[in-house]
Design goal:
heterodimer; A: mainly alpha; globular; B: alpha+beta; four-stranded mixed β-sheet
Chain lengths: ~270, ~120
């Protein structure tokens, strides 16, 4: 139970920690208030309660495909809201009203998906009536690992920012968001909506999916030891969409600055 | 004209029967009870997509997980779940219950001409 709790906690919470570290390092402090934080926590709690109770019903809809379709849709919403939200915030677009809401929606949905999965495990364990000692100890150890990793990652990002490696930071954020979004490929494949049987390569002799590095790389950039052609295609298209959205918002910002300067001159 | 109609009905019936036979042949049932999979080994043909119907008879949730098959599916208590796997090449593909990995274990054995990747 101890090892299992640590593995499951890290699998679900490490991506969440990475997302929060990115947002804390670059965006959240400048655009969020105490009211936003209260609203965010309340929305996440309500979302978790809803998904936790609705998931068993969803799982039997559409011939057993209901949950996969719902989670895929939520992951798509996360991808869109976080990509647009961060690109607008980073490019300092004048549309200030859209910034907090888009990022808030992204954080809320992503936290909801990840926390509900872990909550199902914890409630199952409690239901069995076993001693909570191993579970509590596992949670403490996993939380310690998660906080340590998040702290190191936070300082690594700050170090990159201080040296003006903005492209590397954007690339890391892009790989993270795209990696999390690409989880829809195995989800849709297991309900027979897409085909993932054509494996392109096998890097498991070097890094297995089940290894520590496999889990960390999966959380950071959606690493798969045996990716299918569908996975690589979705990954590439999502990555291009991410950079496309970033370029679009940047152009919009430049145009707006030019327009404002022209107006001032007139 | 009635002759053509009869032939058409016969053709449609034959197609439906063939499809149903194919669908039934490619369905496999697994039961999870007391954190154990029954049967723990399923033999499926190589190069064919199959539908696994997993029924969780336990009072608690479990997660069907397989790194070999690249599948992850929540099995809610007293409910059925559906997963498609394949087409696979010949070999053994392990799966386990993520919440009880020591007891809930099994494997999909793929038999056929193609070798495992």
């Amino acid at each position: 139970v101890l090892t299992n709790t640590v593995v499951l906690f890290l699998r679900e919470m490490l991506p969440l920690a990475i997302m929060l570290v990115f947002l804390l390092a670059f965006i959240l402090p400048s655009i969020y208030s105490r009211n936003h934080l209260i609203l965010l926590i309340t929305s996440i709690l309500l979302g978790i309660i809803t998904l936790f109770n609705v998931a068993p019903i969803l799982s039997e809809l559409f011939d057993g495909a209901g949950l996969e379709i719902s989670i895929s849709f939520l992951l798509l919403l996360t991808f869109i809201s976080l990509t647009f939200g961060t690109s607008i915030a980073i490019n300092k677009n004048s549309d200030k009203a859209a910034r907090p809401w888009l990022i808030l929606i992204g954080i809320c949905i992503f936290s909801m998906i990840k926390t509900t999965n872990f909550l199902v495990y914890v409630t199952g364990y409690i239901h069995k009536g076993s001693s909570g000692y191993s579970l509590t100890l596992g949670l403490i150890i996993a939380l310690g690992i998660c906080i340590s990793f998040a702290t190191l990652y936070y300082f690594a990002l700050l170090w990159l920012r201080n040296r003006n490696y903005q492209n590397i930071i954007t690339a890391l954020w892009a790989l993270f968001i795209v990696g999390q979004f690409c989880f829809i490929v195995p989800l849709l494949a297991q309900i027979d909506l897409i085909n993932d049987a054509n494996i392109l390569w096998d890097s498991s002799p070097w890094i297995k999916d089940s290894s520590e590095y496999g889990h960390i790389l999966n959380a950071m950039m959606g690493y798969e030891a045996t990716p299918s052609d569908s996975y690589i295609l979705v990954y590439a298209v999502s990555l291009m969409s991410f950079y496309g959205i970033f370029a679009l918002t940047k152009n919009f910002e430049i145009k707006e600055i030019n327009t404002n300067s022209s107006e001032e001159l007139l | 004209m009635p002759n053509i109609l009869c032939r058409f009905i016969l053709l449609v019936s034959l197609c439906t029967f063939t499809f149903q036979a194919w669908a039934n042949n490619n369905k496999f049932h697994i039961t999870l009870e007391n954190h154990l999979f029954y049967p723990a080994e399923i033999i499926i043909p190589a190069g064919v997509k199959v539908k696994l119907i997993i029924e969780n008879k336990d009072a608690v949730a479990e997660e069907f997980d397989s790194f070999d098959l690249n599948r992850e599916k929540m099995l809610f208590p007293k409910r059925k779940a559906v997963i498609y796997v394949g087409p696979l090449s010949a070999g053994e593909y392990h799966f386990f219950g993520e919440y009880n990995p020591n007891s809930a274990q099994g494997k999909v054995i793929v038999k056929g001409a193609k070798s495992a990747h």
